[in-house]
Amino acid sequence: MSAPRAVAPVLDHIRVGSAPDSWGVWFPDDEQQVPWQRFLDEVAEAAYEWIELGPYGYLPTDPAVLRDELAPRELKVSAGTIFTSMHHGPATWDKTWAHVSEVATLTQAMGAKHLVVIPSFWRDDKTAEEIEPRELTVEQWQHLTTGMERLGKTVQDEFGLEIVVHPHADTHIDTEEHVGRFLDATDSRLVNLCLDTGHYAYCGGDSVKLIRTYGERIGYLHLKQVDPDILAEVVAKGTPFGPAVKQGVMCEPPLGVPALPPVLEAAQALNVDLFAIVEQDMYPCPPDQPFPIAQRTRRLLSSCGA
């Protein structure tokens, strides 16, 4: 008698999507990137229902135009993305808010509820020059946490959106220590986390442990994996994030770490609805590379129950 087949758990709290990032899109306009129409066609054909806006200006910024493009493809928007340097203190607020309000206006108009907040880099992506020290001072940490809380409250009041801060390689919110310090110093009513499984692994963190420890602060997921062999070389050589991506440090699931089924099951156990947006950093990449990867990744997630 054959052993019973394993049945994938039902991940009914996980809403799977993808993003322009998985098509090699990092900038609003870049000749190395696929046109936005092709991204929308392919992400829909790969059977994703949700997308992020990506860098502001890549997709149409007129809500009526964007709705007309998404509707026939049966796509919906889960979040917009913003970039901040809150550790620089109140002097950066006006410039930050000008950027945030543009993205938030479109995000709100598209019916999404989240803004993914990415902190600024401490070193140049291309030259590897250290623009700032890797570690923040006590005063800068205070600016960072109070600034993010102010941003969270203002975004809630003005647009009805939630901010989810994205720990990211080569930023000051990256490692387990830094992520924990940030969460412990911020108010969960104003600021929560976008856990990017790839970036967190890149910086030495354990996503399942983070979900189990700070479950109430996990407001959003990015699903991503790193190639451990390439990562070891990147760490040994001190390679900046941009060149590391060109080396293929972020790889197609299930070829890297962390394993996604335990992450998804830990997220499901939180018993709250969560977006899980696939992101595979591939900038730059050949235009025909993303689509088959997107199809395979969607099938993989379906096999996991998502």
UniProtKB/TrEMBL annotation:
<dbReference type="InterPro" id="IPR050312">
    <property type="entry name" value="IolE/XylAMocC-like"/>
</dbReference>
<dbReference type="Pfam" id="PF01261">
    <property type="entry name" value="AP_endonuc_2"/>
</dbReference>
<protein>
    <submittedName>
        <fullName>Sugar phosphate isomerase/epimerase</fullName>
    </submittedName>
</protein>
<dbReference type="InterPro" id="IPR036237">
    <property type="entry name" value="Xyl_isomerase-like_sf"/>
</dbReference>
<dbReference type="InterPro" id="IPR013022">
    <property type="entry name" value="Xyl_isomerase-like_TIM-brl"/>
</dbReference>
<keyword id="KW-0413">Isomerase</keyword>
<dbReference type="GO" id="GO:0016853">
    <property type="term" value="F:isomerase activity"/>
</dbReference>
<feature type="domain" description="Xylose isomerase-like TIM barrel">
    <location>
        <begin position="40"/>
        <end position="280"/>
    </location>
</feature>
